[in-house]
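Section 5.1 Outputs to date
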Amino acid sequence: MAELDFLQREIDQWYIGYVDSLSAAELEQVVEFESIGGGHGAMSRSDILLHVVNHTTYHRGHAADILYHLGMVPPPPTCRCSCGKSPGPVLGAMADCAKGLARSPR
């Protein structure tokens, strides 16, 4: 688990650096892509980042379920919730980014 934690923090730092490097205009830039199913799509960078956060949440829940079935307790959630715990680095940075986008006119 220590290695997994280290690797996750490394990825978190990459995302923080990436988000910090983007201007508001770059966040709104539309990126065209091909999905794994072969379809073509286009989304703004900010929408892609929010998709990454949502997709990560899905996988985190799945991994937590597996750990519970193995008799292990998963690490606590990293999102801000009523318990008052602070978000993890990536979720915090993404949330700040999303808040800024929500306030800006489209």
